[in-house]
Amino acid sequence: MFTGIVQAKCELLNIEESPGLKTFEVAMTQTLVKGLIPGASVANNGVCLTVTKVLNDKVFFDVMEETLALTNLANLSLSDSINIERSLTFGSEIGGHILSGHVHCQARVSAISRTDSHYNIEVELAPQWMNYIFYKGFVGVNGCSLTVGKVNKTGFILHLIPETLALTNLSELAVGDFVNIEIDSQTQVIVDTVERVLAQRGIS
Question: For residue 82, what are the CA distances in angstroms to 39, 55, 179?
Fold first, then answer.
């Protein structure tokens, strides 16, 4: 489990391709690597990956074919920045909202508005996922716990603060890029339950 509070953006040093998977080599800080062992879970752009090897300050992850198909990890190139969060430990402060690291889909960046007073990103989302997006609700974007801004028929707006931009790779996004989206699990359960009850009662 994760909190959606990204701890660092780390450089992708190498990608080794094998049948059905890619192995990522990621440079991490000594603080992030401390106590990290093979088998541990780490969120990479919001995707829960298992550590396969730790070599000094370099950490290795195997990314399976299905994960590559569903997430933006398939689009990464050498030297790209990855949002990193280690898994939640007992007693940790939860500053965002609970994330599983299981990405539901990707959203396309459709507009970026940057002025002296704001930094807004607008994304487009497939219709079936818009049912779970609500104004002021939670959403995981590249592993970041964010609050949903204005919602329209095809997507929603994110209002980003300087701290988020400094600590994550969201500041590096351009129009046309894709971000990983994890829907808030509680919202999904509530919406699906209400829809099922209404359907059983013949109410549309």
Answer: 19, 18, 11
